[in-house]
Write a structure and sequence with these properties.
single chain, alpha/beta, 11 helices, globular
Length: 303
């Protein structure tokens, strides 16, 4: 089993999802039933944050947008202590302009077709927030994750910020929202000035051909009230082959980046600024072990 580590105040470090049977004996006691709520109860004994990505996968053909089940959300909220926080990826039915090009043979006719709800539909947002309401007191951030958005989807970053601004003016969210753009061409002065004006944190992403997140941070800094990094790694399929999808060992050493982010996080929390760090299994091979490696690199050790 993992060792329980002291985690400083204002630091929220956790994994991207938690429903991994291969973590039995690492995070979950041997013999734990494969149940997301039971898993989460054990997980929360080691960590005080987790990223929920299951609601992201919501846009399915034919025209169907799946939203969170309120009873399931309430069970998640009840499974963790009061100081635990969730970061939640908003449904991709909100943030996609088109269906994914990769579809099963049954739904091939939908491949690349426009999202029938349109980009950033306020009605879908309202449905999503209603389903998420039981988590409100334990919500660290809602992540609006946007795809590459090439010029066949949007003309560029100015059209993107215009649409996002109109959406935010319409829904007027009273919940913490962070923005993740996966188009590196968007990460310039216009984009970051827009986020700063709106007090919206940018999500600093490691992986998916994005620039090294610390270099982006050093150039543009914080844009909102908290900081959020997500570490995903580069070769997702390669990592699955190397691990056999048994997420129990480090197979790709990212210790250097973990150390650099640990020093940044320590600087942030000294200012009593919340720092969120989500680590995916695909980053090093086992996100729970990656978190321990991150804490081991904390300046002078966690306090």
């Amino acid at each position: 089993m993992l060792e329980r580590s002291a985690i400083p105040d204002h630091l929220y470090v956790g994994t991207a999802s938690w429903n991994y049977p291969s973590w039995e004996g690492l995070v979950y006691p041997t013999g734990t039933p494969e149940d997301k709520v039971r898993y989460l109860e054990h997980y929360a004994r080691y960590f005080k944050m987790v990223e929920i990505d299951q609601y992201f996968w919501s846009l399915f053909p034919p025209e169907f947008a799946r939203m969170p089940d309120r009873s399931e959300v309430a069970a998640y909220a009840a499974a963790v202590p009061d100081d635990f926080r969730f970061t939640v990826k908003a449904p991709n039915s909100l943030t996609l302009t088109h269906f994914y090009k990769r579809q099963s043979a049954k739904y091939q006719e939908y491949a690349g077709k426009p999202n029938p709800y349109g980009l950033l539909n306020p009605d879908l947002w309202d449905q999503f927030i209603r389903g998420l309401e039981p988590l409100k007191e334990k919500l660290g951030a809602i992540i609006l994750q946007f795809s590459y958005l090439n010029k066949s989807m949007l003309s560029g970053v100015k059209e993107f910020t215009t649409k996002l601004g109109r959406f935010l003016d319409t829904v007027n969210p009273d919940l913490p929202v962070a923005v993740e753009s996966r188009n590196p061409n968007y990460l310039g002065r216009h984009y970051f000035e827009f986020l700063k004006e709106r007090n919206l944190p940018h999500v600093y992403l490691s992986g998916y051909y994005m620039p090294e997140p610390l270099s982006v941070y050093r150039k543009y800094g914080n844009t909102g009230d908290f900081t959020l990094f997500r570490l995903h790694g580069g070769d997702r399929r390669g990592m699955e082959r190397r691990t056999g999808e048994q997420w129990t060992d480090i197979v790709e050493d990212q210790g250097g980046e973990l150390a650099r982010i640990a020093h940044l996080a320590a600087e942030e929390i000294r200012l009593e600024r919340d720092f969120y760090l989500s680590i995916n299994n695909h980053y090093e091979g086992s996100s729970p072990i990656s978190i321990q490696r991150f804490l081991e690199r904390w300046p002078s050790g966690p306090r």
